[in-house]
Structures are given as C-alpha cells and as structure tokens.
Amino acid sequence: MQAKGKIPARGALVTVFLVAWSLSAAAQGVVSLRNNILWDATGTPNLGIEFKISDHATLGFNGAFKPWPRFLAWDNDQTKDARWRHLTLAPEFRWYTKEANAPGLFFGADLVYSHFNLGAFNVPIGPYADLQVHRIQGDIYGGTAFIGYGWGLSKHFRLEVEAGAGAGYRNATEYECAHCGAEVGPSNGVTFVPKAGVNIVWNIEGRKKIRRQIIDIVDTPAQIDTVAAEIPAILDTVVRVVRPKIDTISTGRLLRGDVDLPVQVVEEVKTEPEVETVTETVQVRPDVQRHPLLRPISDYKAYTSDRVLNREEGNVPVWFQFAKYNLLRSVYVRGKERDNGEGLDTIENVIKDALTDEAIDPTKVQIVGFASIDGNQWGNERLALRRANAVKSYIKWKTGLPDEAFEVVCGGEAWSELMDELAQRQEAGEKVLTDAEYERVRKIVDSVKDLDTRELRIKELSGGAIYQKLLSILFADQRSAVCVRVFYDDADPNTKSNSNNE
Fold this sequence. Notes:
Layout: H1 7-28, E1 31-36, H2 37-41, E2 46-52, E3 57-66, E4 83-96, E5 104-119, E6 135-152, E7 157-175, E8 183-204, H3 209-217, H4 223-229, H5 231-247, H6 263-271, H7 273-280, H8 286-290, E9 294-296, E10 316-319, E11 330-333, E12 336-339, H9 341-356, E13 361-371, H10 377-399, E14 406-413, H11 415-428, H12 435-447, H13 451-460, H14 465-473, E15 480-489, H15 493-501
Parallel strand pairs: 9-15, 13-14
Antiparallel strand pairs: 1-2, 1-8, 2-3, 3-4, 4-5, 5-6, 6-7, 7-8, 10-15, 11-12, 13-15
C-alpha cells in the first residue's frame, strides 16, 4: 500500500506536536482529557488531550484508532464483507469566550489526517455510492472549523457538544471487493470532512498552583530578590511570636496549641516569681485593638449573600482582572489602575501586630471571593473561590498562619454589591441608568432567582443596551476578593491566667 512508507514520517510529526504541547502544559499547569462518545458508538476507541496556552486559548491533540473491521472488537466473522478500519489524528486549536478549559461557548479549528480502509457497506456514504460492493483504502488530509458548548458536571468534569465541517484531499485506491486485491483505479479528489462530538472531559488541575500565584504577585523578575530577602524577616517574626509565649507559660499551654507540659515542668514555672510579674503587666495595645479590620471572635458572623461588604467598616478589597485569579499588587481595569498594595500591606501588618501582642490571639481570618455577574454561574463561582484562595495563599505566605486559621468563602456572583452600587449612584445623581431602566433591572433581580436566567433577562432589555451600560461602568468593581475580618480570642488575659492557675 502506498501510504505505508509515509507512516514513520507522520509519527515523527505527531511526536513533535506532543512534545511542544507538553512543554506548554507544564508552563500553564492545566490539562484536560476527553473522550468522544459518538466515536465510541462506532466502535472506535479515542482520546483527546488539551493544553491551556493562555486565559482563553488551548492547543490539543485528538486520536482515534479502530483496528477491527466492524463496530465491535469481538465481531470477527470473516463471512461478512463490511469493513471500516481507520487511524485518525487531529491537532486542534480552541478559543473559549470565557475561560480556557471551562464550561461555556468555544470555537475551534483542527487539521485532520486519516488513514482508512472502507468497503462493502449496504448504504451509500457521501460520494462513495459504489462502496456497497467496492472497497477504498488510502489517506485523507484536511481540516475543519467547529463551534461547541460545555456544561459543568462537577469540579473536574464537564460535558461538551461540538459540530463543524471542512474539506480535505483524498489520496486513495479503489478495489473490486472487500477482500480481493484487484485494483479498479485511483480514487483521488476533494472530499467532505465532517466533525461531531459529544465529549466527556476531565480537567486535571496543576499541582504547582500556589507557586504560580506567588510568582504572579511579583510584578518584575527583579523583585524575586526582594521576595527572597523577606524570608529572614518571616523567620524573625516566628521567633518573636514563639519566644514571649515560652517566657510567660504559667498554665501548661504551649503557644496556641493547648499542649500540656509535664507536671513537674508546670510546677517549676509556677514557682518563678517573674511569671506573676509578666502576667500582671500584660497590656492590650490600643493601636491594634482599634483597627477596624481586627475584631473579637464574639463579633464573628458567617457570610450571607444579602450582605453588602463594601458598606461594612474595615473590609479590605483586593481587585482582579477580568476572568483571572492571579493576585497582582497593581491591576489595570479599563485603563484605570487599582492599587492592591496598600490593602495587602494593611492585612499583613494587622495580623503581624496581633501575633506579637500577648493580650490577643488571632484565631480566624475570613476571606470572601467574588466575580462579576457576566458569564455562567458555575464558572463565576469557581473563579470567585479561586480569587479568595489566592488572597489566602498570600496572607499565609506573609504571616505564617496555619490553614486552619482561614475561612475561605465563595461569594459567587456579586449581585448584592452590584445593586447597592447602582442604587447609590442613582441616589447621588451619578446615574448609570435612567430611572425607568433602573426599575426594570431591579424588578428582574427581585423576581428571578436563577442567576443565569436573571442575567439573560437583563441582557434582553432594550436590545442589550442596558446590560452594556452596566458592563462598561460597574462590573469591574465586583471582580474582587474581600478580607472581611481578622478575629481574635477576646477573653481577658488576666482572668484567663488566674483561672488556669487555680
């Protein structure tokens, strides 16, 4: 067969593609595997792999191989003439309208190579009307363009449908029958190349996620030295926290872990007169106590979607770019710079001051992540949680607090914040919408509970003009993660010390 000599060269090209895309995947840390159920239905094992190369784009590679002549591998009845064997390889590019490797609308194109052996079918297939008695064997080189949509099934799985079409060049030979080798002649020319898929997709998360987030915080490569230089300061903070705690042990507690010391050690500490002196002179630092971000644990309340956090005193917002969760000290949104540095430094300093104060014991840092309302609810909730975790990773890195000290909350789509901001602007005369437009939006928000339907209804108002006003002016303000509070144990230290010594 003519094509046999070409297979090693094609294999080398495929290898080059896979190596290049594997390097891209290692850089991005996001890989998806998929299986086309429609291929499975024809008895064709198949697998696709997809690598994220940017926020919206992916490169992929699809392969399908059917070595047996009929639909089922165990159907080996040699008396049947019908056969369909093929090897199909297709490098692929996709562009996602929201986020790469995530549910939503996508467009794509692929190159297609297929080596096939097809014949003795009872129904005509496209231009091959003589396949009922003849057999065609050869190669197709072509490409397709397609469109698709995905739905989230769980955190790591999604369902996709895709459809498209293209064209290719057929370089094949026609034979008299399915088994005989007598050639009828060449079967060359342009041929139709369809594409259809119902895919089950598995997203494999990168294992270096936190490392990427930390690197993204550094604005320039030169700042890496600055980050490294802060490591001694972090160690010094640990020493400053641990040593005073050890020096003032009088109750058998070690640091904040409630670890009991041996009885004889506790008794020796009790006999030291310095312990009573230190305990009696413990003072609550008023500058730390007064900071609105720092609150006693008795003030704690869980986040609910009806709260408007930007109205609550002391909350520190951290802004993000559209569809991203990389934490940067400076973010440009629609040409306007938002400085995250001051807020991040405030959170860090308040926690470090609290850690070094003997009278208070930080026990919980509450962080809520948000996304703007544009896009599907599932994707926005995933993005909001990632933004909250990015802030958590930063604070943990800077202060050394353990995982259990953080409460990370998915605030999802920031509808309460959006409507509050819209109402404030309307009342202040800085109207984004006319009064009539505002009332139409408010009625939809109040009456429609499903968030995706709610967004769709607003998009339909005035042919999309109202939605575009909100998008251009207000949506950027909802792309944030908010450090709500740093809570501390507010029991009186002198009372606590006396009760434990009794």
